[in-house]
Hints:
Elements: E1 14-18, H1 26-38, E2 42-45, H2 60-72, E3 76-81, H3 97-102, E4 106-109, H4 114-122, E5 127-129, H5 133-139, H6 144-152, E6 166-169, E7 171-181, H7 182-188, E8 201-206, H8 212-225, E9 231-237, H9 252-259, E10 267-271, E11 283-285, E12 288-293, E13 297-301
Parallel strand pairs: 1-2, 1-3, 3-4, 4-5, 7-8, 8-9, 9-10
Antiparallel strand pairs: 5-11, 6-10, 7-12, 12-13
Amino acid sequence: MSWIRPRALVPGDVVGVCAPSGPVSPERLDRGIAALREMGYEVRESPGARKRVRFTSGPAPDRLADLHALFADDAVAGIVCARGGAGATSLLDGLDLELLRAHPKVFVGYSDLTLVHLVLGRLGHVSVHGPMVSRELADGAFDRPSFDFAVAGRGTGYVSEPDELLVIREGEATGTLRGGCLALLAAAAGTPWALRPEEDTILLLEDVDEPPYRIDRMLWQLRASGAFERVRGVVFGDMRGCAPPFDADFGLEDVIREALSGLSVPIALGLSSGHTNNPFVSLPLGVPARLACADDARFEILGPAVA
């Protein structure tokens, strides 16, 4: 696949903020918008960003219209989502793929927005598994160098530190980085937007507060769906809240090792990206990456995320 990199953001660019999934706290949204402005960006907030209907930020047609409007407006250079939660599933059938294809731009989000990343990935558009406005940006809980690289092309791509990652299976592989939140990737299996890489892939998997038996089930579901056919390496997030009880006679790494048995690929655990208590590392999806696991594990982004 030939991947399209969006134009890099520069100071003064307009960044759109929308809430395609769950409702947001107005106070937190204000803080996150202030953080974007401190970075030098102008901010355009979507009309429905502060709405609330049950567990979403408004009716699906309104959320879809907000997202489409930001993609269609050439004055908007990038989009940073307000938060995840739930609700993106109801947008997917209505997404205007021709509109998205004609207006590639920086798109940042994670969690429920994994589904939108899957759609953009099918179009061959690089997107960013990164911090969101009313979450990490509001709290300053993100890794600024990796964010600047992913959205603005400044600095160098992320490289893990020694002893940052736990080796689960040894090996070395290079491929295109894909993935996101494990629960959403599993939920997409069997749908038109399911993850089915067409090229050698390094797969990012992360989640939060999922018990080990669910981690096991979701990994087997992805394997059965064919999602792992071109996967050459797997890097897990730090999987906050997913470890077994303290008195269990097994660890999360044992669950992962067994669920991915028979796959001769390097596997590492502990990347601070996604649902994490550590500063959120921004990772561009659709760019080359390398995972090398031996005595230590090293994960690195190899190519630019923006043009």
